[in-house]
C-alpha cells in the first residue's frame, strides 16, 4: 500500500521516510471563519487542502495538517469578527504559530516547505513567519504562495465570471468558493440557504471600527447563486496547476 499523502494519516515512520526522500511538504494556512449561511466555517481549510491534494497528482508531495485559525477577519473582505463561529488569531500569535509549525517540519527532516495561503487576511504575515523559521533552519527552502490563484486570462475570467469580474476583495463565500465547495465537499453546501448579498458600501479604504454598512447581514460579499460545479472544477485545476508549477520551479523537481 502506498503511503498516504496527508501527514495526519501517516505513521511517524512514514513521515520520516517522506522527509528522507526529500519530498516537498505543503502547509495550508486557512481560517475558521463565517462563510455565509450556506458554507461551513472550515471552508478556508478544506479548499487549500483540496488544491494541495490535486497538485499531488502532478508532484509527489506531503500535505501537512492545515493551520485552522487565521488572522482577524476584516469587514470588507471576510465580513468581520461579529459573526458567531469566526475564531481568529492576532497577527503576532499567527506568525508565532506558523513559525513553530515550520520549525517542527524542519526538525522532522523536511527541507522543501511550501506555505500555501487561502484566507485573504493571512497574506501579510506568512513571509515574516518563514523568515523567522529560516533563521533557525537555514538549510530549509521556504516557498510562499500568499495568493492561491493564478493570473487569469480574459477568457478564463469570462468563463468563471460570465456576468463580469467583481474583484477579488468580494470573492468571499461567493462564486469561486461556492463553486469549489460543490466539487470538494458538496455535502457541506446548504443549497437552500444560498442567496446573493453585498455590503451597502464598499470603499477602497478601511475604517476601524467597521461601519455597519460595510458588513452584509448574511456575511456573503457577492453572488454565490452564480456558482457552479463546472466553475469549481476549472478553478480547482487552475489553482493546483499554479501550486505544482511553483513547487517544480523553486524546488527543482
Give an overview in words.
The chain has 253 residues and is an alpha/beta fold. It has eight helices and six strands, in the order H-E-H-E-E-H-E-H-E-H-E-H-H-H. The chain has helices at 12-20, 43-55, 75-78, 91-107, 126-136, 154-160, 175-184, 229-251, and strands at 25-29, 62-63, 70-71, 88-89, 112-117, 141-145. Helix 3 (75-78) links the parallel strand 3 and strand 4. Helix 2 (43-55) crosses helix 8 (229-251).
Question: Which features would summarize this protein structure in a list?
Answer:
single chain, 253 residues, alpha/beta, 4-stranded parallel sheet, 6 strands, 9% strand, globular
Distinct helical segment count: 8
The description of the largest β-sheet is: 4 strands, parallel
Which outline best applies?
globular
Question: What percent of the residues sit in helical stretches (DSSP H or I)?
Answer: 25-40%
What structural category do the secondary elements indicate?
Answer: alpha/beta
Strand content: 5-15%
Number of strands: 6
**How far is it from the N-terminal to the C-terminal residue, by CA?**
24 Å
Mean pLDDT over all positions: 97
The spatial strand order of the largest sheet comes to 2-1-5-6
Amino acid at each position: 500500500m502506498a503511503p498516504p499523502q496527508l501527514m495526519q494519516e501517516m505513521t511517524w515512520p512514514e513521515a520520516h521516510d517522506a522527509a528522507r526522500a526529500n519530498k516537498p511538504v505543503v502547509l495550508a494556512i486557512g481560517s475558521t471563519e463565517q462563510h455565509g449561511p450556506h458554507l461551513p466555517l472550515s471552508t478556508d481549510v478544506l479548499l487549500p487542502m483540496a488544491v494541495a491534494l490535486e497538485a499531488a497528482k502532478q508532484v509527489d508531495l506531503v500535505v501537512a495538517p492545515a493551520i485552522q485559525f487565521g488572522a482577524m477577519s476584516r469587514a470588507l473582505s471576510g465580513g468581520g469578527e461579529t459573526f458567531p463561529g469566526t475564531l481568529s488569531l492576532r497577527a503576532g500569535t499567527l506568525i508565532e504559530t506558523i513559525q513553530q509549525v515550520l520549525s517542527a517540519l524542519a526538525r522532522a527532516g523536511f527541507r522543501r516547505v511550501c506555505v500555501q495561503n487561502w484566507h485573504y487576511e493571512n497574506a501579510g504575515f506568512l513571509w515574516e513567519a518563514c523568515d523567522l523559521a529560516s533563521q533557525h533552519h537555514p538549510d530549509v527552502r521556504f516557498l510562499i504562495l500568499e495568493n492561491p490563484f493564478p493570473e487569469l486570462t480574459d477568457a478564463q475570467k469570462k468563463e468563471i465570471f460570465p456576468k463580469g469580474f467583481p474583484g477579488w476583495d468580494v470573492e468571499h463565500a461567493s462564486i469561486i468558493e461556492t463553486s469549489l465547495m460543490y466539487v470538494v465537499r458538496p455535502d457541506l453546501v446548504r443549497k437552500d440557504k444560498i442567496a446573493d448579498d453585498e455590503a451597502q458600501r464598499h470603499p477602497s479604504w478601511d475604517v476601524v471600527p467597521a461601519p455597519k454598512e460595510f458588513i452584509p447581514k448574511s456575511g456573503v460579499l457577492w453572488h454565490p447563486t452564480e456558482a457552479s460545479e463546472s466553475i469549481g472544477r476549472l478553478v480547482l485545476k487552475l489553482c493546483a496547476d499554479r501550486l505544482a508549477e511553483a513547487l517544480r520551479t523553486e524546488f527543482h523537481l
